[in-house]
Amino acid sequence: MPLVPMRQILDEAAKGGYGVGAFNVNNMEQIQAIMQAANDTNSPVIIQASRGALKYSKLIYLKKLMEAATEEFPQIPVSMHLDHGNSVETCQMAIDLGFTSVMIDGSLAEDGKTPNSYEQNVEITQKVVALAHPLGVTVEAELGCLGGIEDGHGAGLSAEEVNDHLTNPVQAEEFVKLTNVDALAVAIGTSHGAYKSGRKDPKTGEVLPPVLAMDRIHEIHKRMPNCHMVMHGSSSVPKELVDIINQFGGKMPGTFGISLEQIQDGIKHGVRKINVDTDSRLAITGAIRKVFFEQPNKFDPRDYLKPARDAAYLVYVERMKAFGQAGHAGDYQPTTLDAIKKLYA
Fold first, then answer.
1. CA–CA separation, 194 and 108 (whole Å)
2. Which of 148, 218, 290, 324 gives the lowest tally of CB atoms within 10 Å of its CB?
3. Of all helices (H) and strands (E), which one includes residue 111?
4. Where are the domains of the chain?
5. How confident is the model at residue 43 (pLDDT cuts 50, 70, 90)?
6. Active site residue 164
């Protein structure tokens, strides 16, 4: 099966009332783990790469790895998505590479850190939609800014600043009408990375979970029940994965993630795409550290990359089941970019 447009995966998820994990990749082992998990759970899936990942994998290698993935598991609907595109040119590059979906993050300037104005966001998003839709390519945009910085993306906002950059539901409705985007990433207080909260208990100093403005998702869903929302920065940062890293020489105090219960609440109210990156990084790093600590004589990359791949696989399986996508890979006949053009026309 060739790669399918992400719009179809999101439309079908809306019909079924479930969410779909969008998992970031940088290398072969991650792609293999995602596809094996999708196969074993019978899940449609979104595989995504950031600009940093494209640079790391040297473009053509990532393209060929994705071709191999769809050849090995032809029954699994897979979309290849550009995560946090910073310009029209970056989106064009991804489309030329064969991506079936792109995100234009017009909430930030091209440096990936400085917040843009609402008007600037609308303008650049409209340009990408005008470029992508005639080719059948799905477009995701972002309104509001996320805290944290991961892979060069994120405003790096403080806990106080985050509140000033949350998505306004009224503005979101206008933004979707003006841009005609397929999916809208909403800022509700999530952050990239493993340190999602700056809140601490004033007495104990213990890190507290981030406060999420779930009411924004509820309100947007009421206003636009057919809008496919996206939750970025949605890794759960499981304590057991962090503990493995720290047990075998790592130093990661004060980590915190987003609870699966909050994500599932979002799914009930229109969230269809959930971005997960940090959790697989933690699993991979912990597995590699464990091998090096327990077997310091090992030097064959296969000796530590195989357990790393296995650890990531377990994360992907757990998320696919939790988001509800498991069991839905065979629900529909995959479409093509050419076919989806009619939807936009």
1. 21
2. 218
3. none
4. 6-344
5. very high
6. no
